[in-house]
Amino acid sequence: MNFRLLIALSLLIASVHAFGQNNGGFERLANGVQYKIFTPNTGVKIKQNDVITFHFIQKTDKDSVLFSSFSAARPVTIPVQQSRNISDLMYFFPLLAVKDSALVKVPADSLFIDSTMERPPFLPKGSTLQFVIKVEKVQSMNEIIAEQQRMADSLKTSELNAVSKYIADRKLNFTTTASGLKYIITKPSVLAKPVAGDTVLVNYTGKTLDGKVFDSSIEANAKEAGLDQPGRDYEPISVVVGQGQVIKGWEEGLLLLNQGSKATFIIPSELAYGQRGAGQDIKPFSPLLFDVELVKVKAAKKTAPAVTRKPVTPGSKSKLPAKTSSKAPVKKPATGTPVKKSVKK
Predict the structure, then answer these.
(1) How far is Cα 23 from Cα 102, in angstroms, rounded to an integer?
(2) Read out DSSP for 205-218?
(3) Which CATH number fits domain 3-139: 3.40.950.10, 3.10.50.40, 2.60.40.10, 3.40.190.10?
(4) How far apart are CA 121 and CA 329, in angstroms?
(5) Domain ranges of the chain
(6) Where are the annotated segments for Disordered (predicted)?
(7) Catalytic residues
(8) In this predicted model, what pLDDT tens digit does every residue of 29-65 receive, in sequence order?
(9) Side-chain-facing half-sphere of 204: CA atoms under 13 Å
(10) What is the distance between the alpha carbons of residues 242 and 255, in angstroms, rounded to a whole number?
(11) pLDDT (tens digit, 9 = 90+) per residue, 145-158?
(12) Tell me: domain 157-298, CATH 2.60.40.1230, correct?
């Protein structure tokens, strides 16, 4: 906990003790909740759908602290909505403005109306569950969206700068597609090129721009990078191109290669894992580098054209071919790092 948070916590606790000793100055709501606003401000009161950021201490009326966001050094940010239960305090927040602090006493008996609920020993009958609250920020939903957009724009700019620096420092000559995918063919080939629906077998090693290897289908590369991949079969992964089995950057990049060719992709985050990232190694807005080899192309099976049947003239003998029955094999989804739903570490 930093020094400023420690002082704020101490002042709030001191205020709680001062008002708690004489039990005076408290207001009571219709639901039985008692409250005292320590630092009433003249600012605009919190409204429903506002997003508030606040610190709070949750404690018993015996001053036993159950939780403190001050100790966690992480305030809570939530939208103010319709109250669903007495402990959510949604009915109380509209009494506050930014920078207000307050003590709220919730009757413990109101939390255990259902007799099947187990009551903890630190909240006996007649006691209260108390919240010390300090409102740090109040924002409208539009302000939150604008703030998130500014943050996203900043991260996107940082990503573009990182990619440009990576390429300039190494004097690389990437080709850039309309989507932003960058690629270099490091081993050309004149063999078959896949089309959507074909199955391809691919060897790969995936890295972040700082050189951190997060996955590889090649055992030597995985061991060199110190990857722990128990049970991993080190062999080319199978991907049906155009089926959404892999990230967009792979979908596009694989169609640029021929069987037997090798390439390096730099995939922007919007064609990879975007603003969410994936696991510990792939942070939000992370461009990714893949060294890939298109080991084999298996052309999709062509379906037979439909037979056009001519109408039979009454009285004539039919020469229609006998009906046949067939079932196309079901293709299993590919496995491996660039799949959308999981990342192998």
Answers:
(1) 14
(2) EEEETTS-EEEESS
(3) 3.10.50.40
(4) 61
(5) 3-139, 157-298
(6) 301-345
(7) 204, 214-215, 247, 273, 290
(8) 999 999 999 987 888 999 999 999 999 999 999 999 9
(9) 28
(10) 9
(11) 998 889 888 988 99
(12) no
